[in-house]
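Run log // design_07
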């Protein structure tokens, strides 16, 4: 019998650890084929004060990490390879304001989880500018998602982003990814699949004796 497990994922598309965490989460559910996940995207902003048009990638890294950036991203690249992600950080020219990607994912509803993967790939593997409206529309269209610009401009999505950020604050989320399984088990960080599977199993309805 197929069982469903709701998973709330607090994440930001510009966060490489969130990409790694998503890959590992997907792998955990593949190890439980009798379980169907129902993903709920929760918006998180790593850079809430980022200008709407983003900023130069080099300037961003220097301001955030200083001279430690190569070492920081070297560790991330190694973790990515363990999960089948070949990061191409050198291809990224700008760090965007990620609110636009959050709006797309929220507007895509059930397709949002797959669309988040498309945005992760476009940004971290291909260096595409996911802060550009036309580029976002192209990426979404390449994956069969067409969203009317008027719908994307709906203030309800900005309210949802604000609400998600407030929920994260109440949960004391200070970094992403952060996952909540069936409202019961909270896991912070990009853990390996074998560490996520027990949370999935803990959400399942046990058969009656």
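design_07 sequence
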């Amino acid at each position: 019998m197929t069982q469903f497990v709701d998973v709330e994922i607090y994440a930001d598309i510009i966060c490489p650890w969130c990409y790694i965490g998503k890959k590992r989460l997907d792998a955990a559910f593949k190890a439980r084929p009798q379980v169907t996940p129902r993903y709920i995207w929760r918006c998180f902003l790593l850079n809430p004060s980022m200008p709407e048009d983003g900023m130069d990638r080099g300037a961003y890294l220097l301001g955030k990490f200083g001279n430690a950036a190569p070492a920081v991203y070297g560790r991330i690249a190694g973790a990515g390879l363990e999960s089948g992600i070949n990061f191409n950080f050198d291809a990224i020219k700008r760090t965007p304001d990620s609110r636009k990607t959050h709006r797309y994912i929220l507007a895509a509803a059930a397709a949002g989880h797959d669309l988040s993967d498309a945005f992760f790939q476009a940004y971290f593997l291909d260096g595409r500018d996911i802060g550009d409206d036309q580029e976002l529309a192209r990426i979404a269209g390449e994956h069969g998602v067409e969203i009317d610009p008027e719908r994307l401009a709906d203030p309800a999505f900005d309210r949802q982003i604000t609400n998600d950020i407030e929920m994260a604050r109440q949960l004391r989320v200070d970094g992403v990814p952060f996952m909540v399984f069936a409202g019961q088990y909270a896991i912070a960080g990009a853990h390996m699949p074998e560490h996520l599977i027990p949370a999935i199993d803990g959400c399942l309805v046990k058969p009656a004796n």
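Residues 3-202 form a domain with the Glutaredoxin fold (CATH 3.40.30.10).
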